Input
Amino acid sequence: MAHPLLWPGKVFFYPIGNTSPICLTQDLALEETANILLLGCGDPRHILFTVHASAADVPQSSRPLDITCCDVESAVLARNVLLLTLLADEDASDNITKIWNLFYHLYIDKASLSLLIKQCQKLVNISETLQDWQASKYGHFLKMCTAKTLLQLRHFWTLYLQTESLPPQKHKRFQEDFATNIRRNASSSQYTFSSVRSAGPFSVPAIMVLPKIFNHYWKTGTTSYDSNEISEAKLANPTFAYSSSSSDKFVVHYGTDPIAPFHPAEAFLPRPATSGSPSEEDVVTTAKAQFRRWAVAFSCLLRKSSPEYPVTIRVFAGDALAFCTALRYCSMTKDTSTPLYTSPWDMTSIILNETNYGPNAAFSAPTAFNVIETSNLLDHIGLLNVLIATSPILSRVPTSTIYTEALLSYGVDPMSSLLDRACCDLPTLSFLLGLIPSTFISQFTTHSNVHEIVSHRGSPSFASQFHERVAWKIPAGADPAVCRPGVDVNQRTGFDASQLAKLLFSIYLKMFGNEDLKNIMGGPPERSPGATLTHYNRRTFAELLRVAKERIHVDWQQTMSKFSELVVADKNLIIGSNNYQDMCCQLHLLGVDTVDTLSIEYSLSRQRIGSPETFRGWKTIPPTICIVLVVPQAAIASVRSLLDQTGTPSLHVEIHSPSARFSNMFTSIQAAYGTFHTTGTRENKRIVVRCDSTGRFGELPLVISFWMPSWILTLAPRDTHVAMGVQSTPGTAKLLLGKLGMNLRIFSSPLMDERNVHILTERPNLEAGVEKAAALAAWPAELGPCSTTIRMDDPCRQIEMVTVRMDVTDTSAQSSLAGGATVTTTQLSPYVVQVSIGNTKQSTYFPLPVDALKSKLRVARKSMYVEVVVPVALGPAYRGVKALLGRFPIVSHGQNLTSWNVHRVDLDRLPALQTTTPGSMEWLRPLCFLMFSDREKRAREGVSSGTGVSPDTLMNLKDSLLSIFGASSGLSEPNARVFALAQDGPIGAYTLIFVNELRLDLASHTAVADAWVLPMTLEILPHVLDAISGITASIMHIKTDAEEMRAWKQFLPAITERCRTWKHKTTCEYEAHGAIPLSMEWAESPICSCGRGVGSQALSKVEKWSAFMPYVTRAALSPLFAVSYLEEVGTWLTDGEAVLGTPLATSPAPSCAACQKKQLNLRLCGKCKKVRYCSPECQKKDWKAHKAHCTQS
Output
């Protein structure tokens, strides 16, 4: 396993999600098939919400959904399948209330329990075998990935059934124990903020209501406020009583909140007939209404007639990392019997369902995905583990996305914790793993976490959590010029061996920062990132290098030799030398690197000396062997309570010898309680383990297996011991030192004691596992040749320059080059630099955005090649005038188009906002003003005061969006719903924007302007001139400079694509011109005409807008937020200037000195830099009056 084995002392059951749902298809094109993998899936809220939010249930939708759900807690999956099968039944709509009760209430009434028993009996009857399940009424859309998964789910359905038929005395005790545990949880959790977080921009009013619902829930066991319903709900809900990790003990997490997995913000929207904040009952009613909408949408989807089945849901119970590797193995070898264990405390192997995953499957299950949602797994297993496991099974198309989510604060500053978690510079990580956060490229996000920022800045006491979602994408996908036929985006990248070794060593030190004495003794955990969290072992590091090796072109032997020298010489990690052999072993097993002592030649030389006692009688001694250590239950029982107090300490196995003076630790270990029996002898010895479901609460021994180098066992076999121990940390040492001694060993056995120690060539229960694992490690990467090389900075931590070699193959160019022609470069797009040799032009493609203005050329006129050397163009320094080139890319997958970094929304599924009620939109004020980073805020204040001029095009674009949202919401004067984007100077408006309604994007916690855009082209203008003259008085003019106009021309295709419900025509101008936007010139349209007039009947509500209906295209405008891990945001909130829910102090829009028109982006007088004008005409008109006061600045 690539994660340390943790003692399961402090475990909780999470039957209900603790974050609000998101739309899983938000980054896919409208028509694109969705192959989705949910890791740590939790409850099915994301599935149900996705169906509703993407309108997958409507007849016009043709997108098939194939969703694979993985969770290590099979009780979660048992509940999910129970819910989904209830929704699949014909009477689902009649049973919604009872289904709600079953899924969310701790106590249920008799009618709800009756439905549960009836459904469980049905599920038990059809789940005896995989074949029975597949032939059932649910088998066509609900599929089990393994037979063991079905067995585990059936176990829980059986438990639910048996609860009702318990003997009276046992039934009474069950009910009493259940009630006792609920009272204990209720007393230990007086306050929770999970549902408050789900309220997003309404967090401040929500904080006065939602915690009361939480307390009521744990007091009554229901969400009901009806006294009769509460009195009837007295039966313990068995679906909350059982979980895998606790047998029959109630371990539901004390923070479980039934409102958290919904969007409570909807309850706080102003309604015409109501005033004030909603009541607790109002919020619950809103959550129930959302559940009904989502559930009905899912039921409708199941019944939709379609050539392809509209939705398939696959279920796997087991470890997320192991499942990802199993899918990759199956994809490569077509073998469903994988060399992977199901979960860390289980020794059964993953054997995928042959019907769905086998080579002869009629409809093959996906083993690569364009959406991978990982919940907050990174909090539990580390960001690198998540990315290493998922990157190989991500479909390599521009729209593919891996979503990570963090809840726990980490590092010195939780807002920039992503940079700490990555263990290296993000552009560097992109070369190692082929992934990068889309927000790192874009420098903005359309998803708001303003409520998190304000909570962190204004209330540090609540900062133990900081919720942050990040979308990881293929870097080259951000540039449509690169992601097109004929361009290889998966080429290897060249590194200097010495620099790469130093980079890997830097990552190594950060990954194992918990072993660094400076971190351990450096103060409180929040000041020492990684000091208390153990997410990685040496297997993780080896896995990282395995993935990186596939992507990097380098002298790997030289790199690893230099890296090993650095590791051996290291004095930072206090147990680094103890883990060195484990690292060498894992690198060897994964085919990354083989040190001399693990070579075949070394093993043969040891054998020629004579068979050591450990391997006496063996014909061959392999370089690595598997050790099985049997730990008696008595040894565990003696320290169980202390281990439980410690929580989840990391376990390891230690091989030590006093006489040979060595102590080696191995942390990639597998464990299971159970019986075992052996067959064969010597190198043919095998062990089969029969796992015990009672686990640590039973009486059977603990069986541990791990790989190690065989040569170590030849040193002093009679004086070598194998011990199970606990990783030493300040916490574990404090509790366990007195009981276990300095080395924290739970159990130790002599190596030669065959009762407790077994030496094997294969791991238990994995016949031919070595051969299969070798096949996985040796699989060749499908990457092209290396044409790109990287140069690091001096510390080898950041990329300094990127070089692309361009071979000159064109005969005309060769002639020009040989003749001494000048070679020049031009930037065509963020990733593409055009090289001109005489009259010949050729494009070079880079793996990240670059700055061609700072390029250097190496020209080889005899060898006929040109090297273009450029710096990476990322970060705030590249947000200036020219910086928005390609900032809003539209990417294609086949014929399907979508925005790369502006998420999709179905506007008709978003609640509309009432803007006419006084004060109803005040929540929007902080949301819009926190679009700006602190740097941007200072720049805006400089411009506003006349002390500076903004060269930042993205900031100017945000200012224009602020004007649109302010005026259309009534928060700023003048109020307006029609906006004219106009370039400075006499040329005038180039786009009209009609804001029909403002809506709330619940999943992204932000506002969206449901708008219609009208490009003012020479073709359209004659048809609308009269209509424009009729609304002139109501138009708000927003002046933009030439660069902001170009930015808007790029932005418009993104905001029209993100909400389209129509399909592009065969005559689409995008296809004909081969470019998006079509044009960035004034009086030319940047968008195609395919959506023109579609659905525009909505404009008829405003009489004078009707004339525009045939010419407008629907668009979804939303704020562009600063990225909090890249720049400081909202630090000024701690000064008391504002808190969430309080209107932010803001200067009114400045006025034109001549005509008094109020608007942002006015022009400063070029001399005094103090007076503003809306146009050159106004400035000329006012010059006589202003001349006397104007002074040269």
The first strand starts at residue 5 and ends at 6.
